From TrEMBL:
<feature type="domain" description="YrdC-like">
    <location>
        <begin position="14"/>
        <end position="200"/>
    </location>
</feature>
<keyword id="KW-0808">Transferase</keyword>
<dbReference type="InterPro" id="IPR006070">
    <property type="entry name" value="Sua5-like_dom"/>
</dbReference>
<dbReference type="GO" id="GO:0061710">
    <property type="term" value="F:L-threonylcarbamoyladenylate synthase"/>
</dbReference>
<dbReference type="InterPro" id="IPR052532">
    <property type="entry name" value="SUA5_domain"/>
</dbReference>
<dbReference type="InterPro" id="IPR017945">
    <property type="entry name" value="DHBP_synth_RibB-like_a/b_dom"/>
</dbReference>
<keyword id="KW-0548">Nucleotidyltransferase</keyword>
<dbReference type="Pfam" id="PF01300">
    <property type="entry name" value="Sua5_yciO_yrdC"/>
</dbReference>
<protein>
    <submittedName>
        <fullName>L-threonylcarbamoyladenylate synthase</fullName>
        <ecNumber>2.7.7.87</ecNumber>
    </submittedName>
</protein>
Length: 206
């Protein structure tokens, strides 16, 4: 049974955020809000968490997981960025974008694309997510909470708790955060390739 945290969207309660962070450190799989839609999240090196996300979403090993980072300094530890790409990404963060980039040695091999050795990274513009990342002190390994055979993610924390109570450890509810996932931009070859058009404006990458 998943623990339920009702968190204020503008002034998240520190005690609740600390409890969620402790759960993640202990290996929990959580559902949490972002600036694009709800996501599944676990600790960076949690093989169990990865396996559970794959199971819930029916994903294969070619799926790009995302490291949700607090800031640019943290993001820079996990991906290789040249100066031109740095400027393009810096101008778009925080925001509703996921960037695919070559992974550094800090990224466990099980999270990297098996052939490209890349990983997704993003810095969300969401008060609750930022509070959780600050408390956690490391990125959240994440994937959009989009269930198989459904076209849109769930938008309500209570609905997520009701439907996924048996497969999650915690649900963080701070209200509706929309159904549009992030815009995904692949910079792995040095040039911007828009992989998915979503909540982030694509015009700056076209």
């Amino acid at each position: 049974m998943a623990k339920y945290f009702d968190v204020h969207p503008d002034n998240p309660q520190p005690r609740s955020i600390a409890q969620v962070a402790d759960s993640v450190r202990s290996g929990a799989l959580i559902a949490y809000p972002t600036d694009s839609c709800y996501a599944l999240g676990c600790r960076l090196g949690s093989r169990d968490g990865i396996d559970r996300i794959r199971s819930i979403r029916h994903l294969d090993n070619r799926h790009h997981f995302t490291l949700v980072c607090q800031d640019f300094a943290q993001l820079g530890r996990f991906v290789q960025i040249d100066n031109d790409v740095f400027r393009a990404i810096k101008a778009s963060t925080p925001g509703s974008y996921t960037f695919i980039l070559p992974a550094t040695r800090e990224v466990p091999r099980m999270l990297q694309h098996p052939k490209k050795k890349t990983v997704g990274v993003r810095i969300p513009d969401h008060v609750v997510t930022q509070a959780l990342l600050a408390e956690l002190g490391e990125p959240l390994l994440s994937s959009t909470l989009l269930l198989p055979d459904e076209e849109e993610p769930m938008t309500q924390g209570w609905e997520i708790k009701d439907r996924l109570d048996h497969v999650l450890d915690a649900v963080v509810d701070s209200g509706d955060c929309g159904t549009e996932p992030t815009t995904v931009v692949d910079f792995s070859d040095g040039e911007a390739e828009i992989v998915r058009r979503g909540a982030g404006d694509t015009s700056r990458f076209e």
